[in-house]
Amino acid sequence: MDRVTVTEASQVAEARRYAVAGAHSIGFDETASGRVAIVATELATNIVKYGVPGEVLIGIYEDDTGTGLEILALDKGEGFSDLGSALRDGHSTGGSPGSGLGAVRRLSDAFDIVSRPGSGTAVMARLSRNRPAVSDAAPRFGAATVPLKGETANGDAYAIRERADGWTVIVSDGLGHGPDAARASEEALRVFRKHQDKPPAAILSAIHAGLSHTRGGAVSVARYEMETGILAFAGIGNVVGAVASGSVIKRTVSLAGTAGHAVRRIQEFAYPMQPQDLFVLCSDGIATSWHIDGYPGLTAAHPTLVSGVIYRDFARARDDATVLVVRGDAA
After folding, report:
1. Is-contact 91 85, C-beta < 8 A?
2. Which of 133, 149, 170, 225 shows a CA-CA span of 20 to 30 A to 321?
3. pTM here?
4. Would the pLDDT of 94 be above 60?
């Protein structure tokens, strides 16, 4: 994802430029790109008015709900005590016409927001090239992923493969950061796709063998089977997973080592997981102490929004950062 830090008004135009460029890269026409420009402008402006410092993250999404541009606006400002009023056209506490968030919601194909006084606001907007008819498909997964500040290559990478009985996911964190780390993670995903129907431990073993010509990294693979209600997990290094059931978090076990180089053993662990639970997988750019109990009900939000809140509150400044959030069953 592209990241734009927002601390003052001139950066609103930068967020808009990145968003429109992203829209053009996936074939948005001028009308659709115009919607993107308005949404990016309103979200960044909202940060300037109420939440500096903040960030706007811009990326591409593709899932059962469609394909398009995804924008996350994240701040640690005052937050809203009354979201209903904040989303109502004409409401303003900052001297503006007050149509910003209301306009964003109307122009977006998917929209979600969480806010709490004293804890800031997080907004997610998704826009597709051609506005789809209302879909019954519910979002199963979402992610926030950004490179270390100053880098253009992201050493983290993730993938999800949906199955008839659930899903299989991977997060890879290439050793260090920059282009060499990115190449290691790209190779990890290539091997993952080749072996994706195998159990997580077997997939991870294949990745370990396949990364020997790279600098290696930390890699975790998980599979959820809805019928059994079991999450199978295998990890090497500090890509850490957890099953979140409401405010209760059960963290998974990753074994020490570097995939592609030094690994003592690869072992698979099993964890119970209910359809309404979330599985969260974070690279080393996210503090292992992350939690979500500061936002009651957050587990019911769009998975991309959940990932954005965890990234905002627990990202470390010294590394690439990735948060992948997957719902047990989106049905």
Report:
1. yes
2. 225
3. 0.93
4. no
What order do you get walking across the sheet with 156-163 strand by strand? 156-163, 166-174, 217-225, 230-236, 269-272
Give the distance from CA 34 to its chain's centroid. 25
Q: Which residue has the tokens 């026409």?
A: 29
The fold of 2-128 is Heat Shock Protein 90 (3.30.565)
> What is d(CA 224, CA 231) in angstroms, rounded to the nearest whole number?
4
Distance CA 171, CA 221 (A): 7
DSSP E strand boundaries for 207-306: 217-225, 230-236, 240-245, 248-251, 269-272, 278-282
Secondary structure of residue 49 in the 3-state scheme: helix
Q: Tell me the domain boundaries of the chain.
A: 2-128, 141-327
Please answer whether residues 235 and 253 qualify as being in contact, where contact means their C-beta atoms are separated by less than 8 angstroms.
yes
Residue 288, both tokens = 């292992």
* Residue 241 near residue 233, CB atoms below 8 Å: yes
Running DSSP on this structure, what letter comes out for residue 28? -
- The CATH code of domain 141-327 reads 3.60.40.10
Q: What secondary structure does DSSP assign to 114-163, as a single string?
A: EEETTTEEEEEEEEESSPPPP--PPP-EEEEEEPPTT-SS-SEEEEEEEE
**128-183 pLDDT, tens per residue?**
987 765 555 567 899 999 999 999 999 999 999 998 889 999 999 999 999 999 99
CA distance 217 to 225: 27
